Write a sequence for this structure.
């Protein structure tokens, strides 16, 4: 259990990913620069620092830790966590928290929000979370984090700041809205998600599951269980245009050393610096 319990940390694309991700065991990815946690398979160290949780789907290795985390927030008298999850999971999770409240004789309070694909969730003044449908065995969502900003229109670039201030004061629009896809976390999915969403392929950081890494579980069987095989990612890797493709959720069949060696062997040399393995 010591291997599974150890947190991993990876800094890519100006973001720090910390957490645990092992297929069928536990997934929880925390991103401190965004103040967001993705999935809560258990409740790893540091999880209580994140007030907002984005959940991909309802399997226990991705959501089973929520009642304990909510209970801990109550014990510490901290605000209830805000949890965004697939709409199909909302009512069952409300029932689960109600039952745990009954068992513990203590109210487990969480702010639960169910979402359908296409929902855009405001996270802060400059960050939104976009829910996209993935292809898994149960209803599931990927989450794309976009940063909204204003950029100076090209015709005003290089102008004196005092002139720009005067134009703005006169009511002239000198900026345009700009949206940058910073991060996508897929949760569990077949490769169809990668194929269907150019937005995900262009994210600065794409955290994509690869559960199976060799022929001990081939592509057909992997797909039957709603997951992605390394062969499928290798065949499409050149379509990724962002800074970092982070591969997560490997099966317990595969060691970290084994999958890192496969990255070096299987991916084109021109791409290897952008491919990362996450999860100890």
């Amino acid at each position: 259990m010591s291997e599974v319990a150890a947190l991993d940390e990876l800094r890519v694309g100006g973001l720090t990913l910390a957490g645990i991700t092992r297929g069928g065991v536990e997934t929880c990815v925390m991103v401190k620069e965004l103040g967001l946690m993705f999935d809560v398979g258990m409740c790893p160290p540091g999880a209580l620092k994140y007030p907002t949780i984005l959940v991909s789907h309802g399997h226990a290795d991705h959501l089973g830790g929520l009642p304990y985390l909510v209970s801990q927030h109550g014990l510490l008298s901290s605000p209830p966590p805000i949890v965004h999850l697939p709409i199909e999971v909302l009512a069952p999770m409300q029932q689960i928290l109600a039952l745990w409240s009954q068992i513990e004789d203590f109210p487990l309070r969480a702010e639960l929000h169910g979402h359908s694909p296409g929902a855009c969730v405001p996270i802060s003044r400059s960050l939104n979370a976009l829910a996209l449908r993935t292809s898994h065995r149960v209803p599931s969502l990927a989450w794309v984090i976009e940063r909204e900003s204003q950029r100076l229109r090209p015709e005003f670039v290089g102008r004196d700041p005092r002139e720009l201030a005067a134009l703005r004061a006169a009511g002239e629009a000198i900026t345009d809205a700009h949206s940058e896809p910073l991060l996508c976390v897929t949760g569990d999915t077949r490769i169809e998600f990668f194929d269907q969403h150019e937005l995900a392929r262009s994210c600065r950081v794409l955290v994509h599951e690869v559960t199976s890494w060799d022929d001990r579980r081939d592509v057909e069987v992997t797909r039957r269980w709603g997951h992605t095989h390394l062969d499928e990612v290798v065949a499409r890797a050149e379509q990724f245009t962002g800074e970092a493709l982070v591969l997560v959720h490997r099966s317990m069949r595969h060691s970290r050393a084994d999958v890192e060696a496969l990255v070096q062997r299987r991916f084109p040399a021109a791409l290897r610096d952008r491919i990362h393995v996450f999860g100890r």
User: Anything to note?
Assistant: The longest strand covers residues 141-152. The chain has a mean pLDDT of 94. The chain is about 30% helix and 30% strand.
